[in-house]
Specification:
The chain is of the alpha+beta class. The chain has a single domain (19-85, 93-148), classed as Roll (Pnp Oxidase, Chain A), CATH 2.30.110. The protein has three helices and eleven strands, in the order H-E-E-E-E-E-H-E-H-E-E-E-E-E. It is globular and about 50 Å long.
Length: 156
């Protein structure tokens, strides 16, 4: 690629939000901080999420076919910090959580959540793109979503 440094800076200007994707299959559950989440359809309502191939949460998502997108607000610093590193013990330890459809955790300190059923997936390089139909959701504490811009589009 020509001018990779400049392309990386330009790619980093593609803004996104910050989200926590929660998943559950049988007795296993996990959550992962994600920024590549977008609405992709009005009818039926749909979302795309993109997870790294090395994220264990993606295996639970693929096995169950369901996931919840928890929308982080501009004041959700504590939630962001909680999911930046590898948590010790349960990924949900110390968090206020409720249960959504199929028992998947909802983060009560998020501003909103969307419950999705997996409809498609596609390999996209070092990540997997998932398409989900939104089958439920609600506003929680409300507020404005967190806006995320990266310095370099070639890493988090």
């Amino acid at each position: 690629m020509k001018h990779k440094n400049e392309v990386g800076k330009a790619l980093g200007k593609v803004a996104s939000g910050l989200f926590v994707v929660t998943v559950k299959h049988d007795k296993s559950e996990d959550a992962v901080l994600a920024s590549w989440v977008n609405q992709c359809s009005f009818d039926p309502p749909g979302l795309t999420i993109v997870l790294s191939k090395v994220r264990p949460a993606r295996l639970l998502l693929e096995a169950s076919g369901q996931f919840v997108v928890n929308v982080l607000g501009e004041d959700s610093n504590d939630l962001m910090k909680h999911f930046f590193g590898a948590p010790k013990g349960s990924v949900f330890e110390g968090l206020k959580v409720g249960k959504g459809f199929h028992g998947i955790k909802i983060l009560e300190d998020a501003i909103a959540y969307l419950e999705c059923e997996l409809t498609q997936m596609s390999d996209v390089g070092d990540h997997i793109l998932y398409v989900g139909e939104v089958v439920g959701g609600n506003l929680l504490k409300g507020g404005e979503p967190h806006l995320h811009v990266r310095k370099n589009g070639f890493n988090y």
